[in-house]
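Worked problem 6 (solution included).
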Amino acid sequence: MRHSRRLAAVQPIADGINAPLARTLLATAPTPEQAARLTHPQLRAVLKRAGRQRGIDAEVERLHAALRALQMRRLPLVERAMGRQTLALLNKFEATCTAADAARFP
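Solution. The predicted structure is:
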């Protein structure tokens, strides 16, 4: 599964894919096409939903550029299938994180 653009966009974020921002971004835009079309206001909303309170404007600019960077694309049908798979895997990951948090903090 190739989601290199979005994963590259979250690499500088502490905790990588485990970070709330990474998960919120993938949930908002599960396909490369959707990620590339995110506007500044939409990215600002993603950051706020992920709990970001400071440095929002700079992070919006960074994400906006990273999500539009050139990458290999797939046929639209393949990208949609990959997006559905991404959401299914993200839901499992969220459940695992919730269970781990519950086990850690009884």
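Discussion: Residues 76-104 form the longest helix (29 residues).
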